[in-house]
Structures are given as structure tokens and as C-alpha cells.
């Protein structure tokens, strides 16, 4: 009665959703693409399947695919390339910097990249190389290199 038209439409939808996932990674469209592909295969196997049943099948396959996907990502989390990417302060720890304003009485300033940061640490003369060991209250804690 319905033929292969709806089945082809579901498979095209699966392809479009898969391509959209590649264009915008991190979205869950891949799970909907899987559900559309299963629905398309089911529509090919049963060509007289009413559209309402196909929509219900797509909904069920979507829930199944998303549930499996959530469990997969929970059990096998994706590691980022740089865990400190958005933590500027943590990225500073371990860097060697130059004292800009002498550290006297535990206070001074150091050059960090192209900026100057307040520093706390043992007394050090201008030009001394020190290592950042912590970042606290907008200042860096340093120690001799």
C-alpha cells in the first residue's frame, strides 16, 4: 500500500541527521539518526506499515538509542585534550616567570606572559626567575627556581 517511499524517507532522514552530527559534534543527533535508520529498515521489511506505527517505532528507537548512548558515555567518558583549557589559574602553576617588582616582605610583582601579576613568596630581586606554585586571591605564589 505505502511502498518503499516512507522507508527511503527514513533512511534519508538518518543520513541527514548523521551528517548534521558531523557538522555540529557533541549533539545527540547520532542517536536520532540510528533510530531513523532502524525505522527505515523496518519500513523496508514491512512496506505496508502505517505511518503512525512508523512514528511510534521511531520514538521507541530514539529512546532506546539515547538510553544506550547515555550509558555508553557514562561508562566510557570522552577525555578532553586539555583538562586545564578553561582554568587559566591552574595553567599558570609550574611556569617560570621573571620578577618585575622586587619581592620584599613576601610581596611584589612578576611578569606572566604579557601581563604583570601580584606575587607572594620569598624575597627576590628584579629579574630573578621564579616558579609559580599556586594561584590564590588574584596573586601568584612563587618559589625560587
UniProtKB/TrEMBL annotation:
<dbReference type="InterPro" id="IPR052165">
    <property type="entry name" value="Membrane_assoc_protease"/>
</dbReference>
<protein>
    <recommendedName>
        <fullName>NfeD-like C-terminal domain-containing protein</fullName>
    </recommendedName>
</protein>
<keyword id="KW-0472">Membrane</keyword>
<dbReference type="GO" id="GO:0005886">
    <property type="term" value="C:plasma membrane"/>
</dbReference>
<dbReference type="InterPro" id="IPR002810">
    <property type="entry name" value="NfeD-like_C"/>
</dbReference>
<dbReference type="Pfam" id="PF01957">
    <property type="entry name" value="NfeD"/>
</dbReference>
<keyword id="KW-1133">Transmembrane helix</keyword>
<feature type="transmembrane region" description="Helical">
    <location>
        <begin position="51"/>
        <end position="69"/>
    </location>
</feature>
<feature type="domain" description="NfeD-like C-terminal">
    <location>
        <begin position="90"/>
        <end position="144"/>
    </location>
</feature>
<feature type="transmembrane region" description="Helical">
    <location>
        <begin position="12"/>
        <end position="45"/>
    </location>
</feature>
<keyword id="KW-0812">Transmembrane</keyword>
<dbReference type="InterPro" id="IPR012340">
    <property type="entry name" value="NA-bd_OB-fold"/>
</dbReference>
Amino acid at each position: 500500500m505505502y511502498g518503499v517511499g516512507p522507508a527511503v524517507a527514513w533512511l534519508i532522514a538518518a543520513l541527514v541527521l548523521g551528517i548534521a552530527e558531523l557538522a555540529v559534534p557533541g549533539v545527540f543527533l547520532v542517536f536520532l539518526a540510528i533510530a531513523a535508520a532502524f525505522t527505515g529498515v523496518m519500513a523496508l521489511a514491512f512496506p505496508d506499515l502505517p505511518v503512525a506505527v512508523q512514528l511510534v517505532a521511531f520514538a521507541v528507537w530514539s529512546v532506546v538509542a539515547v538510553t544506550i548512548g547515555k550509558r555508553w558515555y557514562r561508562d566510557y567518558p570522552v577525555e578532553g585534550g586539555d583538562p586545564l583549557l578553561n582554568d587559566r589559574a591552574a595553567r599558570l602553576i609550574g611556569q617560570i616567570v621573571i620578577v618585575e617588582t622586587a619581592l620584599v616582605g613576601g610581596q611584589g610583582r612578576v611578569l606572566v606572559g604579557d601581563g604583570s601579576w601580584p606575587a607572594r613568596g620569598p624575597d627576590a630581586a628584579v629579574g630573578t626567575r621564579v616558579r609559580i606554585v599556586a594561584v590564590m586571591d588574584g596573586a601568584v605564589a612563587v618559589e625560587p627556581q
